[in-house]
Amino acid sequence: MKLHKTAMVLLGPLLIYAVLFAGCSNASESASSSSVLGVRNYMQNADKHPGTIEVEGVVSQIIPSKNLVALIDMEEYKECKVVTCALLRLPVFWEGELPAVYDVVRVKGELGKRDGERLFIAKELKKVGKVNAKE
β-strands 37-38, 90-93: how paired? Predict the structure, then answer.
C-alpha cells in the first residue's frame, strides 16, 4: 500500500499535467454557476479560456510542501463517491491556507507555469462546501 501511495505521489503530477492539456471532448459543466466552470469543462477546454477564470471542484489531494491542491470535477465525484477515481485532476498552486480533502472549493486564477510545470495558479480560493467522505 505504501508503494502504491508513493507511486501515485510521483506519477500523479505527470498524469495530471498530461491530461490537463490533452484536449479531450464531451465536456460537461459541473459548477453551480454558469460563470464558474467545473474541473472537467475547464480541463477539456483550457485553451478556450485564456486569462482569469473561476473553477469549482472537490479537493482530492493536497501537497503542502509544494502548495498544491488537486481538484476533481463534482460530477465525477458524484458518479463514484470517492476522490481517487476521477480521470481528470486539476493541479492548483495556492499560497494561502490549504483546504482539506473533500472540501468543495472555488478557485479564481489562470493557467501558468510554476517551477517549469504548467498548472492553474490561484489568486483566490474559497471553500464553498464539503462532500461526504466515503473512503
Answer: unpaired
75 and 23 Cβ atoms separated by less than 8 Å = no
The predicted-structure confidence for 42-89, as pLDDT tens digits, reads as follows 999 888 888 999 999 999 999 999 999 999 999 999 998 899 988 899
Print the domain residue range for 73: 2-130
How far is the C-alpha of 97 from the C-alpha of 87, rounded, in Å?
26
Contact 95, 112 (CB under 8 A): no
**Do the beta carbons of residue 32 and residue 48 sit within 8 Å?**
no
Tell me the C-alpha distance between 119 and 117, whole Å.
6
Q: Which CATH number is 41's domain given? A: 2.40.50.140
Domain contains 135: no
Query: What is the model's pTM?
Result: 0.74
> Which residues, in sequence order, are bridge partners of residue 127?
105
Q: Are 22 and 47 in contact (CB under 8 A)?
A: no
- Ramachandran bin of 46, using left for φ above 0, alpha for ψ from -120 to 50, beta for the remaining angles: alpha
